[in-house]
Specification:
The chain has 374 residues and is an alpha/beta fold. The protein has two domains: 233 residues, Type I PLP-dependent aspartate aminotransferase-like (Major domain) (Aspartate Aminotransferase, domain 2), CATH 3.40.640; 96 residues, Aspartate Aminotransferase, domain 1 (Alpha-Beta Complex). It has eleven helices and eleven strands. The strands form two sheets. The chain has a seven-stranded mixed sheet, sandwiched between helices. A four-stranded antiparallel sheet has the order 8-9-11-10. Helix 2 packs parallel to helix 3 and helix 9 packs across helix 11. The radius of gyration is 21 Å and the shape is globular. 48% of the residues are buried.
Length: 374
């Protein structure tokens, strides 16, 4: 039965037999003391992929946000967070607040609200924190506007680009709505410079359980020199580093085909959903969030689970209540998508049901990445 709970968007999996051998999972040494050559090579290749001068690996985005936000708090920065930001970035800012830094939130994807907030704030350098791409609604953050505001105040833009890494890239167009390369939001939007830092997990698009901090040579070098977690926490395991190396190779060799397969499945899902009289937030992003009120979504979720179709109840950026989402990946077949929509239509309250078209194979797909409901 189809499973729509995995965020391995490109379907990358790394069985042990596909990875380079390692003598031990860890060297027993902190990253601050020594890093294996494979880790440095992976970091260098990811920096090139995302368009940054330098990158460094970390065990997780939590380690990197906790570490970096604490460092910036010690240096006198204040923090301004998009209200739709993923919780892990917020945990980093909780550490900053514990160190005495000012932390404030502004309306989701609202650069004007951020500008007003900065205008009324005490003098000081801001760190503007946001997700590059919101997985709840599928919309891009106005990162260019955020970066302009950060630069105007002598501050930084700190982006959690986990959702976009491996999916979005350069030269997006009707035939390739995700773009090319998979370098993430900065590549897609053409953003670069010393005022932007990116933290991303490779565990979603690339299926490797580690994370990266990318930015200017000076900023990353400063982090490496001052990092607490590189001294007191274990670095990424050699198995995870080798999985990341394999993911980057797969991205070079098969990435465009995998992204093409993924967008075809998402388009198929949205077409069939429309034919069933339903809609979803997400545009062409792989996470599709059903436009159902919470009590109804919870009921449908239970019925789908009983029918063997696994979905996710998750936080919504548009309402206070949870919402039901399906995470589509390149490993899903057209039959999986058909099954999901058929069972979804059957799970709806009787008054909302519409017949699903019998011919689910032919479609004229929407051409561009969207950020609003279909």
């Amino acid at each position: 039965m189809p499973d729509f709970t995995s965020a391995l968007y490109l379907g990358m999996q790394h069985p042990a037999e596909t990875l380079a051998r390692w003598p031990a999972l860890t060297t027993g040494m902190p990253a601050a003391l020594a890093e294996p050559p494979a880790a440095r090579l992976v970091a260098q290749e990811i920096a090139q992929l995302v368009g940054s001068a330098r990158a460094v690996l970390g065990p997780s985005t939590f380690h990197l946000f906790w570490d970096l936000c604490g460092m910036l708090a010690d240096e006198g920065y204040s923090f301004y967070v998009d209200s739709g930001a993923y919780p892990i970035a917020r945990w980093g800012m909780e550490r900053a607040a514990a160190k005495g830094a000012a932390v404030a939130a502004f309306r989701h994807h609202d650069a004007a609200a951020l500008e007003r907030l900065l205008r009324g704030a005490p003098a000081g350098r801001p760190v503007i924190v946001a997700d590059g791409l919101c997985s709840a609604c599928g919309c891009h953050a106005p990162l260019g506007d955020y970066l302009t505001l950060a630069g105007r105040e002598g501050g930084l833009l700190l982006v959690d680009d986990t959702q976009a890494l491996g999916i979005l890239g350069e030269q997006a167009g009707p035939k390739k709505p995700y773009g090319r390369g998979g370098g993430g939001s900065s590549r897609r939007l053409g953003l670069a410079g010393p005022d932007i830092l990116t933290i991303s997990s490779l565990a979603k698009g690339f299926g490797a359980p580690l994370a990266i901090l990318a930015g200017s040579e000076e900023a990353v070098r400063h982090f490496v020199q001052q990092s607490d977690t590189r001294v007191h926490c274990s670095p990424p395991s050699l198995a995870a580093v080798h999985a990341a190396a394999r993911a980057l190779q797969l991205n070079r060799e098969q990435g465009e085909a995998l992204r093409g397969r993924l967008v075809a499945r998402v388009r198929q899902f949205r077409r069939l959903l429309r034919e069933a009289g339903l809609s979803a937030d997400g545009g062409l992003f792989p996470v599709q969030t059903l436009s159902l009120p919470y009590p109804e979504a919870r009921q449908v979720y239970g019925r789908l689970t009983a029918r063997g179709v696994r979905t996710v109840m998750r936080r919504s950026c548009r309402s206070r209540g949870p919402a039901m989402s399906l995470a589509i990946n390149a490993g899903h077949s057209p039959a999986d998508i058909e099954k999901a929509v058929r069972e979804l239509a059957a799970a709806l309250p009787r008054q909302r049901r519409l017949p699903v078209a019998r011919d689910m194979s032919a479609a004229r797909f929407p051409a561009a990445m969207q950020g609003r409901k279909s």
